[in-house]
Every structure is written in structure tokens, then in C-alpha cells.
Design brief:
The complex is a heterodimer of chains A (111) and B (116).
Chain A: E1 2-6, E2 10-14, E3 19-21, E4 23-27, E5 32-38, E6 44-50, E7 56-58, E8 64-68, E9 73-78, E10 87-95, E11 98-101, E12 105-110
Parallel strand pairs in A: 2-12
Antiparallel strand pairs in A: 1-4, 3-9, 5-6, 5-10, 7-8, 8-9, 10-11, 10-12
Chain B: E1 4-7, E2 10-13, E3 19-25, E4 32-38, E5 44-51, E6 57-58, E7 67-73, E8 76-81, E9 90-97, E10 105-107, E11 111-115
Parallel strand pairs in B: 2-11
Antiparallel strand pairs in B: 1-3, 3-8, 4-5, 4-9, 5-6, 7-8, 9-10, 9-11
The chains are: A mainly beta (111), B mainly beta (116).
Chain lengths: 111, 116
């Protein structure tokens, strides 16, 4: 069994400041972990993924995430937020032919 | 690449009618396909998992007779919402994986269903 907890339902930052979206996971397997972004009325776009290679994963649009097994975390970060980053973000865990979504974090970026 | 195409992107149907949504893997063979439902401002809820050539496995609480899933080929799965009602209005998303021992799934663009 596996599950994902996104610790914040809503994060608000000012443009140009760092972004931190938190994700903790639980899995009986060696998990693969993903972050997806969804803009309003759009499908999912893959930001980055961890699949047992390097623990620090760099993704698109300046995002990165670090897999920390001891903390069962996979937090998403970006050094400087842009207005276009405002969207819904989903942390996902997969393994053993099963994929589970977190509840999502809505990121608001203030000018 | 790994492209999944979902069609239609939007559909409006009358209450009591049925609507079919297609999910195609364009450049790979999808051994497993997944169907999700997403309510406004909520996460994706897995409805069912289907393996090519076998019956879909539905999540608890999902009505099999209402949401018919067919995965007849390695590149196509369909979701048919039968006798649709306004409460079935939602955003439906499919995804597909390349192998049974998969670690990643690829998502379609989603279908906005509105039942009037």
C-alpha cells in the first residue's frame, strides 16, 4: 500500500521569492515519485520525477525536488517564483502497478 | 516520446444519454490504462485500472455498470458514461503505462463532461 500527503492545501508567495511545496509519502515498495502541475481547466504536466537514481532531481521551469528516504519526503522547490507558476501541484507516488495522488497544493503568486 | 491523446476534450450531453471518451497511446503500446475523475478544486480520484484484453478493476465506490471501460487494444481504452446525470459532470483524465512493471504513467489532456 502507498499514499501521499501534501502538507499544505494552499501556498502563497510573492513573485521573486522561493517556493516550497511539501510532500510526504508512504510506500511498502521502492517508490517512484513525481510532481505534476495543472493549470486551470488543463491536463497534467510532468515537472520532474524520481526513479531511484540521483536523490536531487531537477525538473522543468526551474523546479527541483529532493528525495529523502529517512524523512519519507519529496518536497518541491524553486528559488524564485514567477507569476506563471500559479497553478495546482500534485505529488504522486507509484510502485507495484499502482499510482496515488496527493490532495494537491494550490500555489498563488502575488505581484 | 510517450504521448497519450484523449478525445473529446469537451463534451456536453443531455441527461439520460451515454457518452464515450477515448484514450489513445500514440507512440507506444499501453499495457495498462487508468481512468481518473477530478471534481473542481480537488485531486484526481482513481476510478479504474484496465489491462489490455482483460476486465477493468474498479476502485471501491465506482459503479461498474455506469462507467464502462473497454481496453480492447494496446493503444486504445474507452470510458463510457452510461445514462449520464448532472452529478456525473466532471473532468475525466486517462493515463497509460508502457509495461506491467511500470514506474511511470503518461496522461491524456482530460475531458470536461457536462451533463445538462
Amino acid at each position: 500500500a502507498q499514499s501521499v500527503t501534501q502538507l499544505d492545501s494552499h501556498v502563497s508567495v510573492s513573485e521573486g521569492t522561493p517556493v516550497l511545496l511539501r510532500c510526504n509519502y508512504s510506500s511498502s515498495y521502492s517508490p517512484s515519485l513525481f510532481w505534476y502541475v495543472q493549470h486551470p481547466n488543463k491536463g497534467l504536466q510532468l515537472l520532474l520525477k524520481y526513479t531511484s537514481a540521483a536523490t536531487l532531481v531537477k525538473g522543468i521551469n526551474g523546479f527541483e525536488a529532493e528525495f529523502k528516504k529517512s524523512e519519507t519526503s519529496f518536497h518541491l522547490t524553486k528559488p524564485s517564483a514567477h507569476m506563471s507558476d500559479a497553478a495546482e501541484y500534485f505529488c504522486v507516488v507509484s510502485g507495484n502497478n499502482d499510482m496515488r495522488f496527493g490532495a494537491g497544493t494550490r500555489l498563488t503568486v502575488k505581484p | 516520446g510517450a504521448v497519450v491523446s484523449q478525445h473529446p476534450s469537451r463534451v456536453i450531453c443531455k441527461s439520460g444519454t451515454s457518452v464515450k471518451i477515448e484514450c489513445r497511446s500514440l507512440d507506444f503500446q499501453a499495457t495498462t490504462m487508468f481512468w481518473y475523475r477530478q471534481f473542481p478544486k480537488q485531486s484526481l480520484m482513481l476510478m479504474a485500472t484496465s489491462n489490455e484484453g482483460s476486465k477493468a478493476t474498479y476502485e471501491q465506490g465506482v459503479e461498474k455498470d455506469k462507467f464502462l471501460i473497454n481496453h480492447a487494444s494496446l493503444t486504445l481504452s474507452t470510458l463510457t458514461v452510461t445514462s449520464a446525470h448532472p452529478e456525473d459532470s466532471s473532468f475525466y483524465i486517462c493515463s497509460a503505462s508502457k509495461s506491467r512493471g511500470w514506474t511511470e504513467a503518461f496522461f491524456g489532456q482530460g475531458t470536461r463532461l457536462t451533463v445538462v
